[in-house]
Amino acid sequence: MAVRPKMRRRRRTKIIATLGPASSTMEVMTRLFQAGADVFRLNFSHGTHEDHALRFAMIRELEAKFDRPIGILADVQGPKLRVGTFGGGRVHLQTGQTFRLDLNPTPGNAQRVNLPHPEIIEAASIGSSLLLDDGKLRLRVVHKRADALETEVVVGGPLSDRKGVNVPDVVLPIPALTEKDRADLEFAVSHGANYIGLSFVQRPEDVIEAQRLIAGRCWVMVKLEKPQALDNLEEILALTDAVMVARGDLGVELPPEEVPLAQKRIVRLARALGKPVVVATQMLESMISAPAPTRAEASDVATAVFDGADAVMLSGETAAGQYPYESVNMMDRIVARVEQDAGWRELIDASRPPPEKNAADAIAAASAQVANTIGAKAIVAFTASGGTALRVARERPAAPVIGLTPNQDTARKLAVVWGVHAVVTPDVHSMTEAVTRAGRVALTEGFAEHGEEIVVTAGVPFGQAGTTNALRVAVVK
Hints:
By secondary structure, this protein is α/β, with parallel strands linked by helices. The protein has three domains: 14-78 and 176-341, TIM Barrel, CATH 3.20.20; 90-166, PK beta-barrel domain-like (M1 Pyruvate Kinase, Domain 3), CATH 2.40.33; 359-475, 3-Layer(aba) Sandwich (Pyruvate Kinase, Chain: A, domain 1), CATH 3.40.1380. It contains 17 helices and 21 strands. Helix 2 (49-66) links the parallel strand 2 and strand 3.
């Protein structure tokens, strides 16, 4: 009988790797998974449904080969705001000149260009800023008409066809989900995505609409990349299932000195709510073209780990870079090394939010405390929907967390959750059976030996979501 390959990670913080042209073969995906990727991200801003269907199939084949649940994050594009085209394909705007953005579809020149988004013209006001080409150019509105914005070029430079437009100080009356996004969302959910990455969220209503369309079939992961979302942060996080600090676009619309503070605020609040939080974008950016990161990038990854983020994410590094395997391997090494440091555990313990005043949180907090007091080898959380494992992970316990669930979809969702080693196992019907199963899994998964102690948490009666109310100390037999 073949021995099941052990895939226990040596770290608690999870790793998300984006798939793309550099990483869409079975060979490369296998290497990324073995190097440390816990979740694969499919970016629906690029590629066809046929491309993504092949990636879905390969990920599930990989999952079956290693008998380990793998999460899939389907990241929908969101509303992309862009200028039109230029007669010569490119112009150069001089600082201090005037420049018009209008609804005229005629190719532009150095004095004007089409802005095919009347909602921007309608929402902008005198003094509003417009950022072009990822913030490289900055315009300020000096006059407004029904069909055009007259602007002054505050920061000039080259501008070419269809470059992006960001409006940092205006709430735009546009939905977070375009028609393309709706089609991509339905495709992704029907193919078994575990999380939908919701781009350019501005308001709680954006999350409500996505939740309505998804109808409980997977988790919504809001991407915070608009300053307006930070104004509604508590309401947005209360509605979502998970959150991503998307520092690329957030860094375009926020001053650079504000981005680290926004990151810490988001991570802190998400941890308090027990919602998985991902730190993303430009983490090891130089490894797109170099085999090793800069020291600053290594420190950036370490900062997210010290903050207690559930996961860190690679984008272009694994999607289109020259060193996808090396990028995952390096991130795995950085995370594991940070988590071995005594100062990391001190910071994690000091930043632990107090438990909420309910039975589930009380049991989760008690499980972490008991495990620490007796030196338990693991906390085994029986979880149908993932809720029990989430509450235990919120405590950031010193002991590893084994999430036992009868639902494969729940196990896949837990792939993004801090410290949780998810295992699919048949349902249990009594606490005695649960303790026996917990000990057997802790033994076979390599967490404990015969005679060692584990802590078991569950909800009684079994099979009902949201009933975490039982805790047991057990000896592995």
